[in-house]
Amino acid sequence: MLKEKMTEALNKQINEELYSAYLYLSMSAYFEDMGLKGFANWMMVQAMEERDHAMKIYNYLVNQGARVKLYEIKEPPFEFGSIKNTFEEVLKHEQHITSKINELVDIAEELKDRATFNFLQWYIDEQVEEEENARDILTRLEFVGDDKNALFMLDRELAQRQYVP
Ligand code: OFO
């Protein structure tokens, strides 16, 4: 049986994850508008993964017999300035999510909630990967610079990313 404080914090995290999905969906639309299909695909897959992150918590709460509460999802930005700026925003956002996951772990520890503590380990590993992916693309963008051919190649590569449920 989950404590109320844990349930509330996990419900808030569902909202964070759904906002992440919304943010990346908006970034995907931004890239579509620029004609960068590969970048748009990468962001679309990212958005779908974020929805899965939310659903994983949703299912955990249901399985624990806790009540799911859905909060309002805020509006994501519409303009992102540049490709590089977009990925800087991704990295910043993922660092924010990492701090949220760490807060959840702190609560689980405080409440001696072993099951939730265990459940959250997957998110800890996932955040390492998420930050690394954003950093990796930022580094590649540095190399690309103003080279349109290199950008085209990178776009083609990002088009390969597939959604794995
Ligand atoms: Fe991007 O990992 Fe969830 O939010």
From TrEMBL:
Record InterPro entries: Ferritin (IPR001519), Ferritin-like (IPR012347), Ferritin-like_diiron (IPR009040), Ferritin-like_SF (IPR009078), Ferritin_DPS_dom (IPR008331), Ferritin_prok (IPR041719)
One annotated GO molecular function: ferric iron binding
Name of this protein: Ferritin
Compartment annotation: Cytoplasm
Function according to Swiss-Prot or TrEMBL: Iron-storage protein.
PROSITE patterns: FERRITIN_LIKE
EC number: 1.16.3.2
Organism: Thermosipho africanus (strain TCF52B)
Keyword Transcription regulation: no
Record-listed Fe cation binding positions: E17, E50, H53, E94, Q127
Pfam families membership: Ferritin (PF00210)
Enzyme class: oxidoreductase
GO biological process: intracellular iron ion homeostasis; iron ion transport
Domain Ferritin-like diiron, first and last residues per copy: 1-145
Primary localisation category: cytoplasm
Catalyses which reaction(s): 4 Fe(2+) + O2 + 6 H2O = 4 iron(III) oxide-hydroxide + 12 H(+)
A GO CC term assigned to this protein in UniProt: cytosol
Keywords: Cytoplasm, Iron, Iron storage, Metal-binding, Oxidoreductase
Family recorded in the similarity comment: Belongs to the ferritin family. Prokaryotic subfamily.
